[in-house]
Amino acid sequence: MPADSSDKRFANTLARGLTILRAFRPTDDGLGNLEISERTGIPRPTVSRLTFTLCALGYLTHGRRHDKYRLGPAALALGNIAAASFAFVEIASPVMQRLADATGTLTAISIKDDRRMLLTRAWRPVNSSSIWLDVGYRMPLHTSSSGKAYLGALSDEEFARFLESRGDEPEDLLAEFAAIRTAAHGEILAEGYTQVRGEDRFSETINAAAVPYRPSDLGEPVAFLASSTSQQLSDQRISEEVGPALAEAVAEVRRMTGQQSALVVKG
């Protein structure tokens, strides 16, 4: 639970309802109340009341009495409105598609969503018959290249708020976040991109490079990434081709949108 959940203004019922909506993944063929309870940690009787309410409001839907819940039209409409409000995404689209085609990688944008990085837009290479990541996929912050790029771009003040929001986690993990942030900042300054290498990656089958970007209409950085299977995208290929190409693509997006570097230079 976020650190500010103890504030009297914090609406716990609303927070739990939004937590339920976040529980759904693109690969799900619906979720029952028990599955939602297991994923969110919210007691099943409370889940039952909240899913009933979310269905009544159109954020969830289910066809029959015992059918599983799926995201409803109100959730879809809200997502589309949110996506349309960020102009940089459409500006970046042709740049990221060219990069995907040139490198044979899946290029994408990820944002921090609660305690993970959420894939919100992706561009597949032309004629690609396979997909290794998709919109809605959530990645761990500390073991994904996207999370590393996000952490590396945080200012001291932003990082302090980040640590406060995760104050319920072990001290060694918080120390790990600090070390990752420092390493990522240095890599981005030196190379233009960052990545998680080898056994530290959250997935052995996926490799990626990431570059932070700070949109003017968001309060924190996002991450552009280029990814593929580990067989197709080695660390050497990232360092020699894909990483520098991604850094240049994001620099082009910055020029087109008039944004400065996402990094706050440390004194």
UniProtKB/TrEMBL annotation:
Residues in HTH iclR-type domain copies: 11-73
Record keywords, A-Z: DNA-binding, Transcription, Transcription regulation
Any one GO biological process: negative regulation of DNA-templated transcription
Residue ranges constituting the IclR-ED domain according to the UniProt record: 74-259
Gene Ontology terms, MF aspect: DNA binding; DNA-binding transcription factor activity
InterPro entries per record: GAF-like_dom_sf, HTH_MetabolicPath_Reg, Tscrpt_reg_IclR_C, Tscrpt_reg_IclR_N, WH-like_DNA-bd_sf, WH_DNA-bd_sf
A Pfam family the protein falls into: HTH_IclR
Protein name: IclR family transcriptional regulator
Lineage: Bacteria, Pseudomonadati, Pseudomonadota, Alphaproteobacteria, Rhodobacterales
